[in-house]
Automatic annotation (TrEMBL):
Listed transmembrane segments: 25-47, 53-73, 146-167, 195-226
Name of the featured protein: Palmitoyltransferase
Organism name: Chrysemys picta bellii
Top-rank lineage group of the source organism: Eukaryota
Matching InterPro entries: Palmitoyltrfase_DHHC, PFA4/ZDH16/20/ERF2-like, SH3_domain
A Gene Ontology BP annotation from the UniProt entry: intracellular signal transduction
Length: 412
């Protein structure tokens, strides 16, 4: 029993380490500053507690803070849920339809992806979020999205308090001259006088908190809209990307296949209910998923395997022999390169001599492809774009070609 307790305590301590990262530190700092300033401003100057409205307002401010922190910590500590180590499909013949993760030493369940920051295969992985220092996936999708909804709402309430405090406090102090605006910060002219007058530092702190609150409202609000789209379509950001590539692949080979994304239940409400339930636990087990008619458990994983095979067939290895800055129209790479720059918004990638690139298509003087990244330092990143053909040369077939080329490559 004692041993078990110490194991639990040890695990909790490990989990607390998630807080020691710039993401949670900044996020919690912003929450602390905005909620504390809103409460101070409200109680001291704008809406004192001796009125009913003031009390309700104060309770609401506390309520926002508690609900925001509750969902934030849930998203962080419950986590996305990992594919059990050693997992494999129930029927052994289904193993051929799924990819194998060499790091986790188990098959990848449908919708799961290996996160190199978490170092585990994550169930229904959407993305790795630095702000919660954890992945957003199957188990914490609801709490994560609730946090994204509540944070802007709380910030709007706080912004209202900040603006009204500054407005009411400064209204009587501003005097307009012929060519100047004077603000009298000497004493409060409010009736009844607050215990602490609204001074310059209170003004500065309120203004700073207002900036933080408005910034958070916009930034987090946009993330909320993105996550709502993901939930209502039942299609994660990674899966949208796979679907795009499926269309691209089918068009390229003109196979006449029709790819149907299997997890969209066809009704926003049904998709919504899979994530948000009254119990707080999402539907299913995160490994087996409900699919729409005409699809089966492995519709998407088979498409992923096809894309993986296709990428190997279609891509050619190149090595950079010259540095390239990533400029759209590079001056030093020759006149033809300069004038034939691809007319597209697709990015250019900077190259350093010796870089490896997997090229998937090309023009006469330009090529498009993925930079082969060092998996130890650039976890989870993809660098793809255009570069001048002049800066690279084709790799001869060597033993390296036999190494796995995909992102799941083990550290050598
Ligand atoms: Zn894995
Ligand atoms: Zn992760």
């Amino acid at each position: 029993m004692g041993a078990l307790c110490s194991v639990i305590r040890f695990e909790n301590l490990q989990e607390l380490k998630r807080l020691c990262h710039w993401g949670p530190i900044i996020a919690l700092g912003v929450i602390a500053i905005c909620s504390t300033m809103a409460m101070i401003d409200a109680v001291m100057w704008y809406w004192p507690l001796d009125t009913t409205g003031g009390s309700v307002n104060f309770i609401m401010l506390i309520n926002w803070t508690v609900m925001i922190l509750y969902n934030y910590f849930n998203a962080m500590f419950i986590g996305p849920g990992y594919v059990p180590l050693g997992w494999k499909p129930e029927k052994s013949q289904d193993c051929m339809y799924v990819q194998y993760c060499k790091v986790c030493q188990s098959y990848k369940a449908p919708r799961s992806h290996h996160c190199r920051k978490c170092n585990r295969c994550v169930m229904k992985m959407d993305h790795h979020c630095p702000w919660i220092n954890n992945c957003c996936g199957y188990q914490n999708h609801a709490s994560f999205t609730l946090f994204l909804l509540l944070a802007p709402l709380g910030c709007i309430h706080a912004s209202f308090i900040f603006v009204m405090t500054m407005y009411t406090q400064l209204y009587n102090r501003i005097s307009f001259g012929w060519s100047s605006v004077k603000i009298d910060m000497s004493a409060a002219k409010r009736d009844p006088l607050p215990i602490i007058p609204f001074g310059l530092s209170a003004f500065a702190a309120s203004l700073f908190a207002l900036g933080l609150a408005l910034g958070t409202t916009i930034a987090v609000g946009m993330l909320f809209i993105i996550q709502m789209k993901v939930i209502l379509r039942n299609k994660t950001s990674i899966e949208s990307w796979i679907e795009d590539k499926a269309k691209d692949r089918i068009q390229y080979y003109k196979t006449g296949e029709i790819f149907i994304f299997p997890y969209d239940m066809g009704s926003k409400w049904k998709n919504f209910k899979q994530v948000f339930t009254w119990s707080g636990i999402p539907e299913g087990d995160g490994l087996e998923w409900r699919v729409r008619e005409g699809c089966h458990q492995y519709t998407l994983t088979i498409e992923q395997l096809k894309q993986k095979a296709d990428k190997r067939v279609r891509s050619v290895r190149y090595r950079a022999v010259e540095d390239y800055s990533g400029a759209c129209c590079p001056v030093t790479k020759g006149v033809k390169t300069f004038f034939t720059t691809p007319c597209t918004e697709e990015p250019r990638i900077a190259l350093c001599k010796g870089d490896l690139i997997l090229a998937t298509r090309g023009l006469k003087h330009w090529m498009y492809g993925d930079k082969v990244l060092d998996s130890t330092t650039d976890a989870g990143m993809r660098v793809r774009g255009w570069f001048p053909r002049k800066c690279v040369e084709k790799c001869l077939y060597d033993s390296e070609m036999d190494q796995p080329l995909d992102g799941e490559k083990k550290n050598r």
